[in-house]
Every structure is written in structure tokens, then in C-alpha cells.
Amino acid sequence: MKVALITGVTGQDGSYLAELLLQKGYEVHGIKRRASSFNTERIDHIYQDPHHPKPRFKLHYGDLTDSLNITKIIKECQPDEIYNLGAMSHVKVSFDVPEYVGQVDALGTLRILEAVRLLGLEKKTKIYQASTSELYGGMQENKNRKGFYDENSPFYPRSPYGVAKIYGFWITKNYREAYDMFACNGILFNHESPRRGETFVTRKITRAVARIALGQKENIYLGNLNAKRDWGHAKDYVRMMWMILQADKAEDWVIATGVSKSVREVVVKAFDYVGIELEFHGKGKDEKAIVKACNNNKYQLEIGKEVLSIDPNYYRPTEVDYLVGDPTKAKEKLGWVPEYDFNTLVDDMMESDLKLFSKK
Fold first, then answer.
1. For the whole prediction, is pTM greater than 0.90?
2. What gap in Å lies between CA 312 and CA 7, rounded to an integer?
3. Where does the chain show beta strands of DSSP type E?
4. Is 125 a known active-site residue?
5. Half-sphere exposure of 58 (CA within 13 A, CB side)
6. Catalytic residue chosen out of the listed positions 10, 109, 132, 202
7. Would you call 7 a catalytic residue per the annotation?
8. Catalytic-residue membership of 161
9. Among 136, 149, 161, 273, which one carries the catalytic annotation?
10. Of 30, 145, 226, 257, which has the fewest beta carbons less than 10 angstroms from its beta carbon?
11. Which of 307, 310, 300 is nearest to 268 (CA)?
């Protein structure tokens, strides 16, 4: 039985990945940070009592800022595969806590790699490092001939989060080359799901739209509506993470859909799910969206009601307007094909949030 260790197991990606690996017969160990309250909602359905005679899912308290703790857990688990998904991953917040982001997202990656090396597990343990499309910074001149970003596109991070992740990317590549470790970077473009954190823009939108439709909320405040991202479903992306570590050779991979959609399009699609048509007025910080029509008898709002406003506080100090990835390598070499597109992704999130707030 293969053994896998997942940092950030209580997060969106960690929970989906743990499910996938358990389905494939793995013994799964997850690292979670200690807190005074439980933060395990995403994995409660797969949690096993530690008194179980042969538990296949085990949790460990740990923190990527603690070298001794990380080394101890890896020594205990002796994992065949490590998936480093733990990070402070909110780009806007990274401007507020840049030192902490460096400690977790940059040096946390080093701590895992060095622990594997010091424990003599270089030939046994494969490592997946969760990298990010924020490495590219949306620089137009760095796109490939198709107008996308691929594995060979130059990096230009534009946030403390992106800068910390670029260290994680290069130190993973360095350890692969210096110590012949099976260590890979997965450059993930935006990936969402019903388990996405509430402060990330897609989940913020679907939660708000569900509450507005149910009469529990008046409107939603957002920042840059014109920012375009390559949005996929986290379920598809964690499947690709596993495929990366099953490949014959350790390499770096872009995980993306190759399709860009704006924040505005997410808003329109989410409202469309409940049969509400919008009309946008104004520009920049003065833009707003009002209800144009309601085509679902179950969800009726006042025509002309303002349901979206702009708050400049949500603008980033250095904005990234466009990010779209080229998944050609993943599709051609590993046969990865996403099962979700943009529409089915937003539908999945809206269905889930409508159920969530209907209960409340």
C-alpha cells in the first residue's frame, strides 16, 4: 500500500486529493495547523478515529514554519509521495503579511525538501510542489505564440505570494537537479469548487448571489471586474497532481484549462443560474449592476435593484489583469483532460451554495 503525506489537507485541494488517494487505495497522512477551534469541515467525511485498528487516513498537527516538526512527521510516515499544498494562498492578503508568506510558502517548501534529503528518502519519496500562475504576473510580453503561459514562459511575480512561490518553484527544481530527487512543480492556474475558501472571489460571488436570490443579502462588493483568469475545477486539478507523480520522469507542468473568463463573467453566470439578468452601468469604481429581469419564479427581485457595487479597497497594489495557461504538455504527455468547463464549474458552486443557505 502506497503512503502519501499531504500538507494543507484541510484546504480545498487537500480534501479533494485525500479523497482521490483513498479511492486509489493509499494510506493518507495529512498535516493540519493547531487551532483553538476545529477546521476540518472539508475532511470530516473521511476522518477515521485514531483508535481504528487500521486507519487509512491520519491527521498530524504541524506547521510549515517548523523544521523539526516537518522532519519528525516525514520520518514517522515514510511517505512514498508528498503533496505540498499548504500555503498562505490569498494574493491580496499577502501584501499585508509578506514576511509570514515568505516563511510558509517559500521556506516551507525548502524544509520539506531538506527533510527528505536528510532522512535519506531521496530515492523513495516523490514530491509534488503546488506552484501557481501568479509566477507569471500577467506580463503580456511573456506569453507564448498562442497567447498563453506555458512551462517555458518567463516569470514576473507581482505580489509577495507570487515572489514566495517563485522561491518554492526554483528550490524544488534545484533539489531535483542537485540530488536527483523526483520533485515536480505543478503550476496551477485558478481552480475553484464548492469547497473554495469564502474570501476567494469566485466563492465570494456564488455565496453572495445565493443569499441575494434567497433574500438574505442586498448586494455584493467587488474590485476589478475586468480581471481575466483561467478557472478550472479543483477536482480536475488534484487528479493531475497525482498523474504528475506517476509520470516516468520528474518535470514541471502547467495545470490549466486554456480558457479565460473575467470576474464580470463569473458574476453574470452566477446570477444566470438563478434566472436573474443583470445590466451594468458606469465605469471603474462607479460601476454597478442592477437587476434587468427575473426569469425564475422561485427567485424574484425588484427590477432595477442594485445588486453589485465596486469597492476600491479590493483592488491590488499591483494588479494582474490576465492569466491563462497552456495545458498542451499535460494533455499530450499525460493524457489529462478536464471533466469540468467554466459553466459546469459555476453551476456546481451555485447549486452547493443555494443548498447551504437554504438550510440557514
1. yes
2. 34
3. 3-7, 27-32, 57-61, 81-84, 126-132, 183-188, 191-192, 220-222, 228-229, 232-233, 253-255, 261-262, 276-281, 288-294, 306-310
4. no
5. 19
6. 132
7. no
8. yes
9. 161
10. 145
11. 307
